[in-house]
Here is the input.
Amino acid sequence: MPAVPSHGETASHGVITCSDTRMLPAACCALLSAKRHVERLSVRFFLLAIDLDDSSRGQIKTFAQMHGFDIEVVDFVSPSFERQALGRWPASAIARLYMDEQLPSDIGRLLYLDADTLVVSALDGLFDIDLHGKPLAAVDDFLMAFPRNMGVRLAQIGMAAESRYFNSGVLLIDWVGLARRNFLKDARELFLRDSNRYDCPDQDALNVVTEHQWLPLDPRWNAQTGILAFVPRPAILHFTGPKKPWHARVQWMHRDAHRFYKTELAGTAWAGFCATPSLFASIRSVLSHHLINITKWHKHRITKRYFEAAQARSQP
Here is the structure.
């Protein structure tokens, strides 16, 4: 039985993110940004909740009401694991691999977003993409621009050297097709057989079980921090790396995202989540931005070359 009640026979689409208390303000902002960029489709918004208390649930409800939409909170029910099966990872590390057990079946396509993402352009075109029978669509991981490093990762997790490896922070899933081939179930079973093998637990497992079976998307649909400068018209920003737009030291390229978090969280219990940078920090951010462009020009050139080529051969 689905954990969330069905809304009738007509399939809508879904957008989901996953969060514990620590990332909850960012996760709700990710859903809000998606809601504001859906123009003509019927879409439901889900939050896969990891160990949230009643206070946090109340804050989600208040935030959603304040911004005029519904967030359906779905509890991640942690299965009973043997300690050795999870190894060094907490159960929350693979929570999204259990989405098939938590969400309703009457969804056409499901867009998964990491909590540290923001949608900045219309999503309708993404939901309309022809998946060509593939179970999911995604964007190459930043590391794909560097074959030596990527080769080490692929060998470690048992993938072929020529395989493409996606970043799982943004996934478009054929939810109807999941009934025919449940790659989420395959991924979690793979992970639990040898959890210590994977440095990026759910991302690695998803790549292994869908090797050569996923549809590459234009990088604009997952503009990771390391490739943002080379992506024309980014549609979904993904703040990979340790520096986030809500931190006191905001990267210059993320200044607009900082304003979004600051504005949308104002007047909520999470108003203090987004720090206010000092004048010194702001000046330092500008200087650091230009310095990085100078000192890392070779790395940037390699990244730009790879992702410009990826854009040319991916779905729009």
About this structure: The chain is about 35% helix and 15% strand. Strands lie at 12-19, 43-49, 72-75, 107-113, 117-119, 136-140, 166-174, 215-216, 223-224, 236-238. Residues 5-10 have pLDDT under 50 and may be disordered.
